[in-house]
Amino acid sequence: MPDSIAQQISKLRQQIQKYNYNYYTLDSPSITDAEYDRQIKLLRELEARHPEFASSDSPSQSVGGKVLEAFSKVQHELPMLSLGNVYSASELHDFIERITKRLEHATELDFCVEPKLDGLAISLLYEQGKLVQAATRGDGSVGEDVTHNVKTIQNIPQTLSGSDFPARLEVRGEVVMPIADFIRFNQQAISEGNKGFVNPRNAAAGSLRQLDATITAQRPLAFYSYGIGIVEQGQLADSHYQRLQQLKKWGLPLTNEISLETGAEGCLNAYQKLRQQRANLPYEIDGIVYKVDNIMLQERLGFVARAPRWATAHKFPAQEEQTKLLDVEFQVGRTGAITPVAILEPVFVGGVTVSRASLHNADEIARLNLKIGDTVIIRRAADVIPQIVQALPNSGVSSEIIFPTTCPICSSEIERLENESIARCTGGLYCAAQRKEAIRYFASRKAMNIDGLGVKVVEQLVDAQLINTPADLFNLTAEQLIPLERMGQKKADNLIQAIAHCKQTHFAKFLLALGIREVGEATAKNLAEHFLTLEALQKANKEALQEVDDVGEVVAQHIVTFFRQPHNQTVIQALLAAGIHWPDMPAKTTQAHTLSGKTFVLTGSLTHMSRNEAKQALQALGAKVSSSVSKKTDYVIAGKDAGSKLNKAEALGIEVLNEEAFLNLLNHA
Ligand code: IVH
Questions:
Q1: Which atom of ligand 1 is least distant from the CA of 115?
Q2: Ligand 1 pocket: which of 226, 278, 286 to mutate (most atoms within 8 A of CB)
Q3: Which CATH superfamily is domain 320-400 in?
Q4: Residue identifier of the C-alpha nearest atom 18 of ligand 1
């Protein structure tokens, strides 16, 4: 059974009171502004249609939130009010028509037009030009004393400039955290394992309402004036626009986007212009404010319950909306990176319908403490990709997001190294998601050097399903190539020839062409020279791999995992079957090196060179350097503090050289 009107009103009031508390008192909103606006609008409509349920303590009749007990209270001498809203051109026309009639004004009204800054309202009281008090809006009548905090905001003057300012002057405006500073601040907070703020407005409010002013001092806050409260003993202009210019003259900051406009047309032009500027402004705005410019007319119009009749806000489309996280998909990028993607109940935000949003990586999911079924806040600033900024406390059923262990495309293993946030598919040669990239890399100059096989041709060949892996290149015919864009007989023949030609290669180039992670030109060359054959390299374990120059634990892990994937093996076999070959690597024993065929183990620390330098010197002389002592070891070089390897050498009766003997050996080799 549907709720009765009374129940509906009472439920809305309770909910809105809870939202107000979270937003104003805790600086931690529990719904988006857009959702809040819809609910308060609904409440006002219900109350207007059913005046029998009117109540002075309805949240529709009050402004803002309760003050925090911990702050001293400030009674505003003039209440700090709110603004009414219009949401369309026709609502703006109605607004202007209403006030023009009320004033019995014959000509079009002039408006001072200002950006609606998305921050925190603040009142600054100057006495004899000195800043004596700063207060938050609070519930509109009583705010919090934040004088100490406000004094740390760099662009707020502690004393006014000039001399013609009123003896007592209350300046009102908004404290914001500029967007660039917000991004920097949040990145820093997140990298230090802290939570970060959901948006710049929360960041500003959370930073200003600190009991410890030294914390506020470290936050990049800025203030912009938009109005005047108390004025005693002083002359102010009779236009709102001119008054703002007076504030500027006295040293108070204004936004750059303030203008004087005539009638609805002028206002709407300014609205369009500001919407276009929105993405490039240094601060976040959520709309535009139109204010009757003439102060006398303002006074004649006066106020309704909580807002002036002479001003209204025209909101821009919301940049934050809430919706439901339906599922998480895992996408494989062209280099194998696995990206979790949120599947959302479609929601209109920032001017477009959003149904997917990247979650970047597993760390981001953990940071948001996200679960499937959660209600989430989606943020999409103009021209910026949509983001999930928060998961709201959820009453419904939610389930954990499980990260896959195998690739959703090719079912190869997914590898995520310690200290790395990105997980990757290891089936690089085979995986459909990585096809184009793998083939392009295979054909590149440094690798197999197939002339004429550029990005565009690879894309067309893959899209036409003529090739799936690099091995398929060797089955292509000129007839298959000719229909491709900008190809023709001659180019096709040349390409087929280049493909055939590349079969005669070098081991290092072939290794590079496989696209093993972190195996670049130098590493491929070292691997080829060390292992000499593909079979030996494929059999090598992590330890054996680490004996190669430049190969540390991470690269060794990548190599082992790569060769372990059955799909990669299939492609390698197909490449060899297609006829790829290379000249035998010169075996080290055939080199005219004095230490050829000898195996050394280094242990302890040397005083004249690092262990790596010693290793290189030995290898240059044709010796093999191993990390463990076995019967096959010929010499152990024992530096200072040599441990178990020395004991083992002695037990096996292997010749041990001290540093001096080792240097001697090098000098005379
Ligand atoms: S004038 C009596 N001008 O919007 C008029 N307010 O919803 C009171 N705001 O609490 C406000 N930019 O925090 C005014 N250019 C602007 C504004 C602005 C942002 C905020 C302000 C106020 C709220 C009203």
A1: 15
A2: 226
A3: Nucleic acid-binding proteins (2.40.50.140)
A4: 116
Q: State pLDDT tens for residues 330-388.
A: 999 988 999 999 999 999 998 889 999 999 999 999 989 999 999 999 999 766 789 99
* Amino acid letter, residue 449: N
Query: Is 116 annotated in the active site?
Result: yes
Residues in contact with ligand 1 (CB, 6 Å cut-off): 81-83, 114, 116-117, 121, 137, 174, 226-227, 289, 308, 311, 313
| Type of residue at 213 | A
pLDDT digits (tens, 9 = 90+) for 209-256: 888 888 899 999 999 999 999 999 999 999 999 999 999 999 999 999
CB of 366 closer than 8 Å to CB of 346: no
The architecture that CATH gives domain 84-315 is 2-Layer Sandwich (3.30)
Q: φ, ψ for residue 61 (rounded to 5)?
A: -100, -5
Residue of 116, 291, 525, 615 marked active site? 116
Buried (b) or exposed (e) across 382-398, using 16+ Cβ within 10 A? beeebbbbbbeeeeeeb
| C-alpha 453 – ligand 1 centre gap (Å) | 61
- Domain limits of the chain? 2-61, 84-315, 320-400, 599-668
What is the rounded CA–CA span in Å between residue 362 and residue 375? 19
Buried b / exposed e over 16-36, threshold 16 CB at 10 Å, is: bbebbeebbbebebbbbbbbb
CA 179 – ligand 1 centroid, Å: 19
Fold of domain 599-668: Rossmann fold (3.40.50)
Q: Are 453 and 492 in contact (CB under 8 A)?
A: no
Q: Could you say which architecture CATH assigns to the domain 2-61? A: Orthogonal Bundle (1.10)
Total residue length of the chain:
669
- For the CA of 311, the closest atom of ligand 1 is 5
Q: What sign does the dihedral 119-123-127-128 (CA atoms) show?
A: positive
Instruction: List the end-to-end C-alpha distance of the chain, in Å, as a whole number.
Output: 98
